[in-house]
Design a protein that fits this description.
The chain is mostly helical and 160 residues long. The chain has helices at residues 8-27, 34-38, 53-72, 81-103, 107-131, 133-159.
Length: 160
């Protein structure tokens, strides 16, 4: 008897939905009333306008989902657990950042979180590249954005 599996497109769609839903759920509770205090902070002149964040993050989370989905598909022929494990760990640090920064308004703690996140993403990229080069490359824009976000976070932490 063969075990039932999802079609590749269905499993990809489910992965994209789950990762984007987790991101949405981690941010919604803390985003209420943010504009009132966030816009009053001393911010870098490089801070993008607010409208940039939602489409950019949706794209990045979708690329992350595609990357981990691609790696997961090698599970029958490769040990993907370390790569998927580090991906999940970086996702936890990613999902913690919004509540720390916006919910608790702990800018220095958020900066520590995002710095650890950047390292975890770099390790994830290295692990993904070993299994599926495209999956690793799909994570690179995310690392670049996190590096820029770390700069923005650090600027706020030190200027306020």
């Amino acid at each position: 008897m063969t075990k039932p599996t999802l079609s590749p497109w269905l499993s990809l769609s489910v992965t994209i939905i789950i990762i984007n839903a987790l991101a949405f759920l981690s941010s919604v509770p803390v985003m209420q009333g943010v504009k009132s205090w966030y816009n009053s902070l001393e911010q870098s002149c490089l801070t993008p306008p607010d409208w940039v964040f939602t489409p950019l993050w949706t794209l990045l989370y979708t690329m992350m989902a595609i990357a981990v989905w691609r790696v997961w598909r090698y599970r029958e022929t490769r040990d993907v657990r370390p790569a998927v494990g580090i991906f999940l760990l970086q996702l936890v640090f990613n999902l913690m950042w919004t509540p720390i920064f916006f919910g608790m308004q702990e800018f220095t703690f958020a900066f520590i979180d995002i710095t650890i996140l950047a390292v975890l993403i770099a390790v994830t990229i290295r692990k993904f590249l070993e299994i599926d080069p495209l999956a690793g490359r799909l994570m690179m824009p995310y690392l670049l954005w996190i590096a820029f976000a770390a700069y923005l976070n650090g600027y706020i932490a030190f200027a306020n």
